[in-house]
Amino acid sequence: MKSSKAFAVALALAAAAATHAKAHHSGSMFDPSRTETVQGTVRAFNWTNPHVNVEVIAEPEAGKAPQLWTLEASSPGVMGRSGWTKRSLNPGDRVTVTFSPLRDGGLGGSLRKVQLPDGKVLTWSTSYSPAADAKP
Known about the structure:
Layout: H1 2-24, E1 36-46, E2 53-58, E3 67-72, H2 76-81, E4 94-101, E5 108-115, E6 121-123
Parallel strand pairs: 3-5
Antiparallel strand pairs: 1-2, 1-4, 2-3, 4-5, 5-6
């Protein structure tokens, strides 16, 4: 009887943890059917788990105040496999960012690509296969 009760409690905790993990990795706050592009200056580039993010101060339109955009990407591991490093962007870099915006209209989104002034384009992909790294 005790082991059945312990098993039920463990199962309930595991289910709660799985639900939390799935909710954390949900992208439902972003609108993947739309993309927006903003030009500006990198304020911060945070190479941290669980998600890399970049803060960009957008160049204001005439008569408007600058806007601070916070854009989320994937984990450092996924970004690294796509060619990014913790030094890919630096504060002060002038960039053009393309992203899927937040559904609520806030100043944020899911980062899709970054173009640097020299024309270099940084993107990332979640379509990673560990087999691609296997050595023959």
